[in-house]
Structure formats: structure tokens, C-alpha cells
């Protein structure tokens, strides 16, 4: 069985944009800005044997304010820039009652089935309570990237670690692997 690090997209890989006090995803390719050292972080995790799978809620598509094509275009650009194995997107909103919108674990469970992933050996890195809850619901460990824009609901999340960037999350995950490896010997 393989192990994976599931990566939330906005606020973890790329900068979330602030509009009217809300954090929003890039609305076109020109607004896509990868955060510092994300490539470095992805390479370290890949070298350690983790599959890297993006799991992202994009409800603006269901709300009609963002075109699905733009989300796919941004996904393609991110895949070109970073050594990712897969990108899984939920295009729904709450009213759709789908199984994939985080905090539901559907995106992770489906990817685990398709890739042969051991969820108990896997991690998720996200910046919202919904990410952390999805990880819990799937049986993964969770690392939260906090960024100064946190909502009060996000502050109530209980991740295994809180960090300030994907690079720090990767270092924490790799550190935990080292300790577990040492204990197993
Ligand atoms: Mg996010
Ligand atoms: Zn969905």
C-alpha cells in the first residue's frame, strides 16, 4: 500500500486572494500565484515516497461565479509547476449534498481506492477546519497551515500540528516519519 499527502489547494499551494474581507480562489490563470517553497516541499515529500494528491473544494462553480474550465486550467498550471500525482476537485456546493465536498472524506476515499493508499499512513495539509475534518473523517493525520486570515471556526479545528507554510508542514511530516522509523527499529 502507498502513503499519500493530500494537499488542499487555495492557501496551501497558491495564495488565496482577499476580496471584501473574504478569502477567495484565483478567478483566472493570471491570479494564480504559488506560495514560497511549495515546490521544495513537494519534492521532499515525493522523495520520501508520498503520493501528492490535491483535494480541493471549488463551490464557486456550482454557484455560477466561476467557470469549471478556469479551475481545470489552474489545475493544469499547478501540475506543470509542481511534481503532483493527481488533482481531485469537488465542484459542488452544500445544496448538492455530494459525498466529495470537504469536510466529507469522499475526495480522499476515492483517491485512496484508485491509488491503493493506506489512509492511516497518510496526511493532509490544509488551511481550513473543513480540511482538517475531512482528514479526520478519512482516518488521516492533519497538518494545518495558519496564515493570519483564520476564521473563528478554523481556530476550533484540532490538527496534529499547526505550521505557517507547506514547507514547514513537509518538515513536520518527514520528522514524524523519522521518529516512527526509529521506534520501529
Ligand atoms: Mg484552502
Ligand atoms: Zn462534491
Quick structural summary:
This protein is α/β, with parallel strands linked by helices and 185 residues long. It has a single domain, classed as Rossmann fold (3-Layer(aba) Sandwich), CATH 3.40.50.1000. Helices cover 36% and strands 19% of the residues.
Tally of structural domains: 1
- What global shape is seen? globular
Alpha carbon gyration radius: 16 Å
CATH-defined fold name: Rossmann fold
Annotation, overall tally of beta strands: 8
Tell me the number of helical segments per DSSP (H or I, 4 or more residues long).
6
State the end-to-end distance: 20 Å
Name the hetero compounds present: magnesium ion, zinc ion
The side-by-side strand order for the widest beta sheet comes to: 5-4-1-6-7-8
Structural class: alpha/beta
**CATH-level-2 architecture:** 3-Layer(aba) Sandwich
The CATH homologous superfamily is termed HAD superfamily/HAD-like
What composes the largest sheet?
6 strands, parallel
CATH C-level: Alpha Beta
Helix content bin: 25-40%
Quick check: average pLDDT?
Answer: 95
Provide the β-strand percentage band: 15-25%
Order of helices and strands: EEEHEHEHEHEHEH
Report low-confidence residues grouped into runs of 5 or more.
none
Amino acid at each position: 500500500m502507498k502513503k499519500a499527502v493530500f494537499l488542499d489547494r487555495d492557501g496551501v499551494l497558491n495564495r488565496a486572494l482577499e476580496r471584501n474581507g473574504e478569502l477567495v480562489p484565483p478567478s483566472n490563470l493570471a491570479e494564480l500565484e504559488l506560495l514560497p517553497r511549495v515546490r521544495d516541499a513537494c519534492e521532499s515529500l515525493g522523495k520520501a515516497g508520498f503520493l501528492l494528491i490535491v483535494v480541493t473544494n471549488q463551490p464557486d462553480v456550482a454557484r455560477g461565479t466561476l467557470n469549471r474550465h478556469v479551475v481545470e486550467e489552474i489545475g493544469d498550471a499547478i501540475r506543470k509547476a509542481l511534481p503532483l500525482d493527481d488533482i481531485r476537485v469537488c465542484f459542488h456546493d452544500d445544496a448538492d449534498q455530494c459525498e466529495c465536498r470537504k469536510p466529507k472524506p469522499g475526495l480522499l476515499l476515492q483517491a485512496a481506492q484508485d491509488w491503493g493508499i493506506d489512509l492511516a499512513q497518510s496526511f493532509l495539509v490544509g488551511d481550513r477546519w473543513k480540511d482538517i475534518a475531512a482528514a479526520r473523517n478519512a482516518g488521516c493525520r492533519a497538518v494545518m497551515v495558519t496564515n493570519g486570515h483564520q476564521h473563528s471556526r478554523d481556530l476550533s479545528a484540532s490538527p496534529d500540528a499547526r505550521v505557517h507554510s507547506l514547507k514547514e508542514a513537509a518538515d513536520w511530516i518527514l520528522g514524524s516519519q523519522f521518529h516512527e522509523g526509529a521506534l520501529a527499529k
